[in-house]
C-alpha cells in the first residue's frame, strides 16, 4: 500500500482570537468598571452621607434626598427641564424630519445644504449660547432691529421674561441640534428602496400618505436613535444655560445640571449634589432602559 503524506497547513488562529479580543477590550472594560461604575457607586455612597465640602463617612440614610426634594430650586429645575425637554425634542424631531424630506428630493446643491444644516451642531453650546444671547438681547438684537425698521412697539424680550426665558433656550438649542436629526433621518430615507415610490405612483397614492403610513414607520430605528441622542442633550443641558441666562432671571431657567454644579462647587454641598446626580441618573435609566429593551426585542424578532 502506498502511503499518502498529508501536509498540514498553518494552524488556524481561531483559538488565539478570543484572547486577542479580550486584550483589546481590556482598556475599555477597565474604563467602564472604574471610571463609570466606580464613580456612580461612589456618588451613591456620598449621597447617603452628611458630606459637605469633603466626603465624610457618616451614614445619613435618605436625609440628602429629603432635603433635595424640599429645595424649591430643585423642584423648579425639574419643572424647567420637563418643559424644555418636551419642546426641544418635539421641535428637533419635526424640523429634522422636514429637512431630511426636503433634501431627499435630490435638490440642487444638496451637499452644500447638508453642510449648512449640520454645521451648527459642530459648534459648542457655549458659543451657541453667547450668539443667541446677543440675538435675543432686547437692547441689541431682534427687538432693536424691529424698532429701527419702524415697528417701535414691537417687543421680543423673552430672554429677560421669567415666563418665556426657557423657550429662548429651546430656540437656541433647536437651531443647533436639528441638523443632527436631519442627518440621521436622511440616512434612513436613503435606505428606502426606490421601488416603493414607483409602486406608490402607479397606485396613485398621495405622497404625504406614503410618508405618513409607510416611510415614517420605516424610520423607527433612526428616530429612536435621534430621540436617545436628544434626550441625552436634555439631561446634559448646562453650557447653553450658563452662557445665555446664568439660570435667570431668578431661577426661571434653572436646570438640574446647573443645580448640581452650583451645589458641588459653588455651595460646597457635595452630599446634596450627589443625591441630585443619582436622582437624575435614575430618571435617565427609567426612560432609556425600556427604549433599549424594545429595540433589542425588535432586533431579536428580525433575526428569528
What's the short version?
This protein is an all-alpha fold. It contains 13 helices and no strands.
How would you characterize the overall build of this protein?
The protein has about 300 residues and is an all-alpha fold. Among the domains are: about 85-250, Orthogonal Bundle (MetI-like fold), CATH 1.10.3720; about 255-295. Helices cover about 70% and strands about 0% of the residues. The chain has 13 helices and no strands. It has helices at about 15-45, 65-70, 70-105, 110-120, 125-135, 140-150, 165-190, 195-205, 205-220, 220-235, 240-245, 255-265, 270-304. The longest helix is centred in the last third of the chain and has 34 residues, at about 270-304. One of its GO terms (biological process) is transmembrane transport. Pfam families: BPD_transp_1. Keywords: Cell membrane, Membrane, Transmembrane, Transmembrane helix, Transport.
Amino acid at each position: 500500500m502506498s502511503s499518502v503524506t498529508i501536509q498540514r497547513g498553518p494552524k488556524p488562529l481561531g483559538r488565539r482570537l478570543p484572547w486577542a479580543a479580550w486584550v483589546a477590550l481590556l482598556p475599555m472594560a477597565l474604563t467602564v468598571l472604574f471610571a463609570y461604575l466606580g464613580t456612580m457607586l461612589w456618588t451613591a455612597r456620598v449621597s447617603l452621607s452628611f458630606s459637605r465640602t469633603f466626603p465624610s463617612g457618616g451614614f445619613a440614610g435618605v436625609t440628602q434626598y429629603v432635603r433635595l426634594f424640599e429645595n424649591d430650586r430643585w423642584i423648579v429645575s425639574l419643572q424647567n427641564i420637563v418643559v424644555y425637554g418636551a419642546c426641544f425634542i418635539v421641535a428637533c424631531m419635526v424640523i429634522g424630519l422636514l429637512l431630511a424630506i426636503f433634501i431627499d428630493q435630490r435638490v440642487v446643491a444638496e451637499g452644500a445644504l447638508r453642510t449648512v444644516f449640520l454645521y451648527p451642531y459642530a459648534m459648542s453650546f457655549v458659543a451657541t449660547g453667547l450668539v443667541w444671547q446677543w440675538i435675543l438681547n432686547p437692547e441689541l438684537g431682534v427687538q432693536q432691529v424691529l424698532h429701527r425698521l419702524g415697528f417701535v412697539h414691537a417687543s421680543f424680550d423673552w430672554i429677560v421674561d421669567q415666563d418665556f426665558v426657557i423657550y429662548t433656550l429651546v430656540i437656541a438649542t433647536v437651531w443647533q441640534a436639528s441638523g443632527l436629526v436631519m442627518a440621521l433621518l436622511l440616512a434612513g430615507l436613503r435606505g428606502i428602496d426606490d421601488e416603493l415610490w414607483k409602486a406608490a405612483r402607479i397606485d396613485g397614492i398621495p405622497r404625504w400618505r406614503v410618508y405618513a403610513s409607510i416611510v415614517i414607520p420605516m424610520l423607527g430605528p433612526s428616530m429612536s436613535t435621534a430621540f436617545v441622542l436628544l434626550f441625552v442633550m436634555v439631561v446634559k443641558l448646562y453650557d447653553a444655560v450658563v452662557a445665555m441666562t446664568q439660570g435667570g432671571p431668578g431661577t426661571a431657567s434653572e436646570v438640574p445640571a446647573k443645580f448640581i454644579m452650583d451645589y458641588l462647587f459653588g455651595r460646597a454641598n457635595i452630599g446634596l449634589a450627589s443625591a441630585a446626580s443619582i436622582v437624575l441618573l435614575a430618571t435617565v435609566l427609567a426612560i432609556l432602559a425600556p427604549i433599549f429593551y424594545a429595540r433589542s426585542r425588535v432586533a431579536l424578532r428580525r433575526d428569528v
